[in-house]
Amino acid sequence: MCARSGCLGLAFLVAATSCPHGAAAARASRPALSDRIRILYDAPKKADYRGIYDDMRRQRVLERIGAIVGLARLPARLTYRLKECAGELNAWYAPENRSVTLCYELIESVYKAAPKTKSPAGVTRQEALVGPVAQILMHESGHALFDLLDIPVLGREEDAADQVAAFALLQLGGEEARTVVNGSAYFFATNGKDEPLDQGAFADSHGLSWQRFYNLACLAYGSDKKAFGYIVAKGHLPKDRAEGCGVEYDQVAFAFDRLIVPHLRVKPGPGERLRHAFQRAARGR
Question: Cα separation of 22 and 19, whole Å?
Answer without folding.
Answer: 5
